[in-house]
Design a protein that fits this description.
450 residues; alpha/beta; 7-stranded mixed β-sheet; 48% helix; binds NADPH dihydro-nicotinamide-adenine-dinucleotide phosphate; binds (2Z)-2-iminopentanedioic acid
């Protein structure tokens, strides 16, 4: 007897959980994605025959390696490095590197799994991958960060390449780290290729890559508001968690569209500035000085600082943009946001809302832009950086920005249409998962059992 779609999906999930014990974030991402894909399997019984989902959920390759380095005191330190090459059906592996003490295999696998669908949604030819290390860049000197990056690349270089796997930044990996990683790759291989994205503008980087995830998030949410008759960013009160790369450029674009950003955070606490958070001050604190966000109130005494980052969701706002990390909005925070009249949530971070929080938003009619759609502007612009590197050419800021905007608007409509086609109108979680999966599934089917 043939299996039903539901039986097939639950058996794949059950095996995934049994085979990958303790990888809680990976289980969480897989549950969310698989429950959407059940709808696709119902229409494509041939995917069961091909055991497509079990192959889809198994990374093509996982590399785990030792990263030894010497700190400024002369002590030998050891970290663990990861690169998960998850799926190359539609292009070379592509995805960021995260340096944070919390990094483990389950986190890198959840990020890599999400990345497959996100990258497909961009419409560009990039497969899914992710990597990183439990290295903590906080409090380290530039020289320590450089020695760490050189050691990390001394293993990673043999696994990557411009047509194989192209890493980029994520939490704890920005322009400084990409520079050190690129320098070491070039030294080891003697090749000047587009093997990393997020590079400096002086050596092959793309204009708008730094701004891309934040700008893209705002383009996506703006389109979501307009399509649902909820106006635009103009006049809206916005709360943004985090104060890193994504948060800063989300603030910049939302503000330029007439919104007022009243709160931001870091992993220690949050600031509330009813006059609108001053972005120049935040850039100075975070990008230039690498300090804590609590510094803000020293120069803006009318603002307040509160210890602990979760309280930020108690601040009433029209639009919430979680741009820090996974599971930063739980059911309690989601209920508070809904109660306070929040009309839209756009995920700048990857999986910042728990499954329970997501369900609360969807049930309450809050417009909800899931990370893999709403934050795809970063990787989309990375793919544009790859195109420019291949052409040995550089587009203007306006050219790249226009392409980014167009991609984000297209992603919104792809998710919107897939949600309607599968009888879940307005559910952009289901819509994004299905729209992203379609191309990957077709490519995998056409390429045979690999
Ligand atoms: P950054 O390292 O630039 O900034 C991260 C911000 O989030 C910092 O303010 C940091 O605070 C805070 N944060 C990090 N970890 C935690 C934690 N465990 N608890 C509370 N706060 C935390 O990273 P990005 O801005 O690049 O990344 C933010 C999110 O966006 C991540 O989920 C990332 O995966 C996602 N993303 C990033 C893209 C990119 O292009 N960079 C693209 C798509 C998604 P502190 O300074 O105290 O550490
Ligand atoms: O989560 C993400 O999409 C990123 N960190 C960006 C990846 C990339 O390759 O630009």
């Amino acid at each position: 007897m043939t299996m039903s779609a539901q039986q097939y999906v639950s058996s794949v999930l059950e095996k995934l959980i049994a085979k990958n014990p303790g990888e809680l974030e990976f289980h969480q991402a897989a549950k969310e994605i698989m429950s959407s894909l059940e709808l696709v399997i119902e229409r494509h019984p041939e995917y069961i025959e091909a055991n497509l989902l079990e192959r889809f959920a198994e990374p093509e390759r996982v590399v785990i390696f030792r990263v030894p380095w010497v700190d400024d005191m002369g002590r030998v330190q050891v970290n663990r490095g990861f690169r998960v090459q998850f799926n190359s059906a539609i292009g070379p592996y592509k995805g960021g590197l995260r340096f944070h003490p919390s990094v483990n295999l389950g986190i890198i696998k959840f990020l890599g799994f999400e990345q497959i669908l996100k990258n497909s949604l961009t419409g560009l030819p990039i497969g899914g991958g992710k990597g990183g290390s439990d290295f903590d860049p906080k409090g380290k000197s530039d020289n320590e960060v450089m020695r760490f990056c050189q050691s990390f690349m001394t293993e990673l270089y043999r696994h990557i390449g411009a047509d194989i796997d192209v890493p980029a930044g994520d939490i704890g990996v920005g322009g400084r780290e990409i520079g050190y990683l690129y320098g070491q790759y070039k030294r080891l291989t003697g090749q000047y290729t587009g093997v990393l994205t997020g590079k400096g503008l002086a050596y092959g980087g793309s204009l708008v890559r730094k701004e891309a995830t934040g700008y893209g998030l705002i383009y996506f949410v703006d389109e979501m508001l307009r399509a649902n008759g909820k106006g635009s960013f103009d006049g809206k009160k916005v709360v943004i968690s985090g104060s890193g790369n994504v948060a800063i450029y989300a603030h910049e674009k939302a503000t330029s569209m007439g919104a007022k950003v009243i709160a931001m955070s870091d992993s220690n606490g949050y600031i509330y500035d009813p006059n609108g958070v001053n972005l120049d001050t935040i850039k100075e604190i975070k990008e230039v000085n690498r300090q804590r966000i609590s510094e803000y109130v020293k120069t803006h005494p009318h603002a307040t600082y509160t210890e602990g980052c979760l309280g930020i969701w108690n601040i009433p706002c029209d639009i919430a943009l979680p741009c820090a990390t996974q599971n930063e909005i739980d059911a309690t925070a989601a209920k508070t946001l809904v109660k306070n009249g929040c009309i839209a949530v756009g995920e700048g971070a990857n999986m910042p809302s728990t499954i329970e929080a997501t369900d609360i938003f969807l049930e309450s009619g809050v417009l909800f832009g899931p990370g893999k759609a709403a934050n795809a502007g970063g990787v989309a612009t990375s793919a544009l950086e790859m195109s420019q590197n291949s052409q040995r050419y550089m587009w203007t800021f306006e050219e790249v920005d226009a392409k980014l905007k167009n991609i984000m608007v297209n992603i919104f409509h792809a998710a919107d249409e897939a949600a309607k086609e599968y009888n879940r109108p307005g559910n952009y979680v289901v819509g994004a998962n299905i729209a992203g999966f379609q191309k990957v599934a077709e490519a995998m089917m056409q390429q045979g059992v690999v």
